[in-house]
Fold this protein.
Amino acid sequence: MSDATLLSARGLSLTFGAVPALQSVDVDLWPGELLAIVGESGSGKTTLLNVLSGRRAPDDGAVWYRDPAGRLHDVHAMPAPALRTLHRSDWGFVHQDPRQNLRMSVSAGGNVGERLMAQGARHYGSIRAAALEWLEQVEIDPGRIDDLPRTFSGGMLQRLQIARTLVTHPRLVFMDEPTGGLDVSVQARLLDLIRSLVARLNIAVVLVTHDIAVARLLAHRIAVMQRGRVVETGLTDQVLDDPQHPYTQLLVSSVLNA
Amino acid sequence: MMGYNFAYLDEQTKRMIRRALLKAVAIPGHQVPFGSREMPLPYGWGTGGIQVTASVLGQQDVLKVIDQGADDTTNAVSIRRFFARTAGVRTTTHTAAATVIQTRHRIPETKLRDDQIIVYQVPQPEPLFRLEPSRVETRRMHGLADYGLMHVKLYEDIARYGQISISYDYPVMVNGRYLMSPSPIPSFDNPKMDRMPALQLFGAGREKRIYAIPPWTEVRSLDFEDHPFRPINAPHPCGLCGATDSYLDEVVTDDHGGRLFVCSDTDHCAERRAAGHVGTDGVKEAAE
């Protein structure tokens, strides 16, 4: 295990009955790096994301996380309170459907401020200032701070979810198809936003996507999954321009101008 | 009374409730489940409080029961008579003379002592229930002391109304650990819970939960640094006794907008009047 990795997984295996969802998967993630996990649907991408983030325990294997002080933690051996603290401070999770993460009956400002308050922020003025700043960062009109999310469009909801996740300056964010279900022009703006925020805040991201174009645009490195195995991994351009594994070749050739 | 055990409940039930009470006192603010019994009054009328009272009552105790501060409303009279019949204990309306006080929606104005027990009737013990519908999830939140959600509610109030709009059942942190519903007492009464010398017991009959605050325990009302907790009270003196430091009820006296503000704590008001204090409407009353 390299000294600098932020997150490392070794030999992750998980089966759902007879279906192997993960078969001895290794993953390494360095600080500030954006790793894309691509593959067809059912290949185990989302399962891998859930196991990496500690939301689901693997049958075999371990996930190690290095905290800011340099100590290593076995994510699946952590006590529940510590894991929860991690999830609401150092880590973030962006769902495909923002409604899973947002509180739809709480205003946009309250949604952005919740993680701050969960961390112990008790100054209304500064929480509101942070919420306003983050709405601006994700290009939502600050005048809508007191509006309910149900009055927002799909793209705005996704941007609100990103603001809510990034407000605590996490070091590691898990994203599950963040652009899924959005139309192409909204996707492009969102990708642009994610790329600039991640670069500026030096956040490491594990991004699950079935869209090779998204991976090419955002990711530094790419891991290709098929039937629960990582069949190929490497730098994004290298993997996409010169695919070695037959499945990767198929995947790349099936996308026009990828 | 013939045919009933002392204070209505059988000894095994009392034993079960006392165990729950001991556990509740050991973990201030934590909700302890208990096997709530059917009582001869409807849910919502104090089935939880009456079971706790029955379990702590001894033959030498003096019982006071109040409902919204008053000793003379149906609920208070019925429960007081119930224990007078089933336990034969002495009852009183004087706060200072009571050893056990069962209350609904108020804490008496007279400061309680360390030889007194106050029993609250609680309709909804879960402070997060309007915010998080899942009990599994709220239990996890209590276990992990994950109370950001409650502050989200306070944040929403300030964003919407410019102030925290909760006027009763104002959430409190007990001993710096557990978020607790103080039962629907007015926020005016919240400061009285902090480091109270008396033992405070809470019973929720329908929800089958007991919790407690041991004497001298820190009870803090939630707030923001720049929007501190502010108890709400009508800006008037009591019309009958002239008190300016007690919680007031507004009574509509006619259909021309006539209003009378009186102490909600009837015992407090009566004692002040007996001591010669007279409010503006009290004088009129005496002259008529």
